[in-house]
From TrEMBL:
<dbReference type="GO" id="GO:0005737">
    <property type="term" value="C:cytoplasm"/>
</dbReference>
<comment type="function">
    <text>Involved in several developmental processes including organization of plant organs, flowering time, anther development, flower senescence and fertility, probably by regulating the chromatin structure.</text>
</comment>
<comment type="similarity">
    <text>Belongs to the actin family. ARP4 subfamily.</text>
</comment>
<keyword id="KW-0963">Cytoplasm</keyword>
<feature type="compositionally biased region" description="Low complexity">
    <location>
        <begin position="55"/>
        <end position="85"/>
    </location>
</feature>
<dbReference type="InterPro" id="IPR036416">
    <property type="entry name" value="Pept_tRNA_hydro_sf"/>
</dbReference>
<keyword id="KW-0156">Chromatin regulator</keyword>
<dbReference type="InterPro" id="IPR004000">
    <property type="entry name" value="Actin"/>
</dbReference>
<dbReference type="InterPro" id="IPR001328">
    <property type="entry name" value="Pept_tRNA_hydro"/>
</dbReference>
<dbReference type="InterPro" id="IPR018171">
    <property type="entry name" value="Pept_tRNA_hydro_CS"/>
</dbReference>
<dbReference type="InterPro" id="IPR043129">
    <property type="entry name" value="ATPase_NBD"/>
</dbReference>
<dbReference type="Pfam" id="PF00022">
    <property type="entry name" value="Actin"/>
</dbReference>
<feature type="compositionally biased region" description="Basic and acidic residues">
    <location>
        <begin position="279"/>
        <end position="290"/>
    </location>
</feature>
<feature type="region of interest" description="Disordered">
    <location>
        <begin position="266"/>
        <end position="293"/>
    </location>
</feature>
<dbReference type="GO" id="GO:0005634">
    <property type="term" value="C:nucleus"/>
</dbReference>
<feature type="compositionally biased region" description="Pro residues">
    <location>
        <begin position="86"/>
        <end position="96"/>
    </location>
</feature>
<keyword id="KW-0217">Developmental protein</keyword>
Amino acid sequence: MKAAVFPSKIASLGLPSGHRCALFFRSPPALSSSFSTTPCRKLARGIRGSGGLMSQSSSSSQSFSSLSNSFSSQSESELPQVQLPSPKPKSPPPQLPWLIVGLGNPGKKYQGTRHNVGFEMVDALAEAEGISMNTVNFKALFGKGVIGNIPIMLAKPQTFMNASGESVGQIVSFYKIPLKHVLVIYDDLDLPFGKLRLLPKGGHGGHNGMRSIIDRLKGSRDFPRLRIGIGRPPGKMDTANYVLRQFNKQEQEEVVGAVDGVEAMDVDADSAKNNSNSEDSKTNESDKEKGKRKLYVGSQALNYRRDHMEILSPIKDGIVSDWDLVDNIWEHAFRGCLMIDPKEHPMLLAEPPLNTQQQREKAAELMFEKYKVPALFMAKNPVLTSFATGRATSLVVDCGGGSTTISPVHEGYVLQKAVVSAPIGGEFLTDCLLKSLESKGIKIRPRYSFKRKEVRPGEFQVEDVGVPDTTESYKLFCQRMIVGDIKDSICRVPDTPYDDKSYANIPTTSYELPDGQTLEIGADRFKIPDVMFNPSIVQTIHGMEKYGDMIPTVRGLPHMVMESINKCDVDIRRELYSSILLAGGTSSMQQLKERLEKDLIEESPHSARVKVLASGNTTERRFSVWIGGSILASLGSFQQMWFSKSEYEEHGASYIQRKCP
């Protein structure tokens, strides 16, 4: 369970009448993250990775200043009005720091368990605000940062749960933090699953971590705490085993949804409402004026539905089309996933073979100007894939999500004149399968649109959930996730070219949808993958008519390979035929390697020795570029090839063309 806490809005902490704060939660993803394009970025952390982007019109700045003001002993109206003799502005008084502590147990063994939800919340906040948690101090993973103008300290005690007070006591004592500025986040058995409760003070409630903290604070209970409900263990399950058990997928989605749904808790409802309306209207107007948007990055962030949320992609036809989104993805990768400061690390960037000069210079400018990297190198994807297999010369067939690209590599360089690309990739095949199923009357229901309740043991009832403010792009994204899993699970490339008559009576394969209905899929599981070899099949799929003008110009995979090789010099063609490398996520489709090799043997010259190579590990195929990059960067001879910061300052971004040909 991931969630990002914005302590700028903490509520119900026994404030004087008229004061109001709120506690905001945002779910991050599986590599769920959120970004805000305001100066203080908000990130909701996800599974390591950045599979997509969601945009939502929102305001998300002014994080901690309102929190500090809300805990003052007097309201503004109670202060005496004094006329100063001099209009000289005074610098604002220094803000007191806040300490936010998440409780849990250290080590991989306990990651993702119910007892570690406090750790998860602090991790998400650290990611949201770009606060590094790599320092070990005061017996805790410790980090410092600033939100708005409020100094923040984050801590994850590494003493194990029952001795958390040893760490918290040391931090509070060393920095002399007022107890009302110490927020502790932890799990609670007594709250229903997914329920949140924020209190200004209280006892330990039987929680050993809280008991330890109270003991170390000399028995004081006067500090706020956020309790996250994990529910009671089912049946006669031992409590200790229950809290140390990981959330299953359904529980994780429920907890993330419950946390993300909490927006505010008010002490004084009337004044809070008035304050909220005035603040929100001002912020909304400000956002509209600046044209800003709130961005969520990563797999887990995508999995939770939000009203009026759109799915965005920074890439179009393999080339960056929105650098603002790419900037947010990089920020998430550096701060949230890798937990590094880019200033301290040379950066190796992989790029598509058809990347333009302007795109390369823009990437270099962003890396040096914003992230202040000490050195940079840009390498072509096919070259890195080739290095991953220990080859300097090969023909790389990269079957990705958005396109398929054939790139000959000779002695470590891409032969640009022979690069061939087609807009058919994994996402296109997923759309074909989705339209084919819909044309047969099969309804793919997104996970957010229904609930399953167990009415009897083993028997479930499905109830629709009304979500009128869901955008079409998000609905399509969720449907693609389900259909993509169908494609990966049961589809396979046919041994021979597909035709309806030959596959009319093929045995069906079952697939159970998330809502419980079972599909029986027959010919489609062979027809859809064959689109890569015979794109004209698309014209027979109902709902894909919009691609009618594009399909006649697209060639099948074997013809693309032949065309690319024929554009190369005669001297290296035999070597390319014998070193055809499959890479990319779509290349993992069953029987793709065998079918491609068979078709190429039939169509290639008799003197050619065709050999299609592919790793048996699908993960290695998908991440072959990363593997090749790690090999290249580790070579001693590579260190002199970096494009340094001093060279950038002397020659400018255009020098990247010379340093990284």
